[in-house]
Amino acid sequence: MRSPHRARPASELGDFLRSRRDAVTPSEAGIPRWGARRVPGLRREELAQIAGISVNYYTRLEQGHSANASDSIIEALARALNLDEAERAHLFELARPVPAPRRRNPRAETPNPGALALLAAMPTVPALLLGRRNDVLAWNPLGHALLAGHLPFTAPDAPATRPNLMQMLFLDAHTRELHREWADEAALAVAALRYIAAQHPDDRLLAELVGDLAMRSADFARLWAKHDVRLCSSGEKKLHHPQVGDLDLHYEALHLPDGDGQRLLTHLAARGSPAADALRLLD
């Protein structure tokens, strides 16, 4: 007997395909423009032709009426839509049914012991241990001082008091002021959260986090509706700390190998830079 499967909500796949279709201009797709167009991006017929599939099949796929699309069709759509690696992986996640999970009560995440030891072993590097849902499971003193000195150092110790980086970014005035380029940081954070949400479609607590943020923050709701998808493994953060001023830092998100979504978020300053001096002062 085949194991039961639960298809992902049709709106997830359809909304993502429409958002990417709207983002590709006819000129980018090599389609000549004749007169005014009512749509900014590609029409369904144009995308289907570029991908080499029938318009009827693509329409059914966008409306969620067709499951188990072949790898070749998903790959053809990814090429036609000019998707990057993160967007391509996201499309594969959405286009296929997933095994129906066993019902179970969501549990609070337990910090990885090895990651906790690593946090303690690098006191001069601002670092946090994050869970799948961006809950702060632990931080070292410098990580706490850099990003959340206005919160108790012991806040991550209990699930009920753990800070959540997404909630801090959108709902906490201190965190908003901390980021000199808040709009870019917020857009990247939401795009990364959407990628994670597709990896764990049955995480009720993650879905509740998204719903709560969408109700409490118009900025979050607007960015979530764009269906952008990104992987945030490394990059730059431009901060303005209330005690030490401006810092330009490089971050690395180090994912733990057990696959449960926990990761170490580290912040590094270039040797001899003003940011390195500021971190020493903060320490």
Describe the structure.
- The chain is an alpha+beta fold.
- The protein has two domains: 5-99, 434 Repressor (Amino-terminal Domain), CATH 1.10.260; 113-282, Beta-Lactamase (2-Layer Sandwich), CATH 3.30.450.180.
- 45% of the residues lie in helices and 13% in strands.
- It is built from 13 helices and seven strands.
- A five-stranded antiparallel beta sheet has the order 4-3-7-6-5, sandwiched between helices. The protein has a two-stranded antiparallel sheet with strand order 1-2.
- A hairpin with a 5-residue loop joins strand 3 (127-130) and strand 4 (136-139).
- Helix 2 packs across helix 4 (71-80).
- The chain is elongated and about 60 Å long.
- The model is unreliable at 1-7 (pLDDT under 50).
CATH fold type of the largest domain: Beta-Lactamase
Order of adjacent strands in the largest pleated sheet:
4-3-7-6-5
The percentage of residues in β strands lies in 5-15%
Mean pLDDT: 86
Give the overall form. Answer: elongated
Low-confidence sequence ranges: 1-7
Q: Based on helices, strands and strand pairing, what is the structural class?
A: alpha+beta
**How many distinct domains?**
2
Give structural attributes.
five-stranded antiparallel beta sheet; 283 residues; Beta-Lactamase; two-stranded antiparallel ribbon; 434 Repressor (Amino-terminal Domain); 7 strands; 2 domains
